[in-house]
Amino acid sequence: MGAMLAGDTSPGVKVSFTTEDGTDVFMGRTNTFYNLLQPQQQQQQTSSSSSPSKKSNPTLSLDTLRVFIPPPLRSAMATAGVLQSDDYVPMRDLFTSPSVSFAYERGWRQGFAQAGFPGADEEYDMVRKYFEDVTKDVEGSTVVDMSCATGLFTRRLAK
């Protein structure tokens, strides 16, 4: 039940994506977002060498328990250096949980049609037509899905 309500609180699995030409590498973890706007090499160059490594910091295990710490206390603990930072918000990743995505796409999403929305198929056609002019002449166009992060439309756009 914790994974459905607050996302996966484990450190997650390390994931990396490499462009076809191998020039850019994008990294992230399964329990957070992937920064697809800035390749990993650029991130390493811009990060300060004085910042401590997360692997060597004993607060990593405490960071996985942050969902149980009240937000005002989390902020104070981050300021005091006990926690890494107060940037991670568990509910932000709610829809990245496979069980929540499944329930959304095969249950809750159908409620939108009953509320008067055109439905996923017609909404996809609207999105495709909207972006058609700016993506038709560009090879390897990038579209960022800024919705609920289930990938409902992103998977269709990727085809």
TrEMBL record:
Residues 39-61 are annotated as: Disordered. GO terms for molecular function: methyltransferase activity. This is Methyltransferase domain-containing protein. The lineage of its organism: Eukaryota, Sar, Stramenopiles, Ochrophyta, Bacillariophyta.
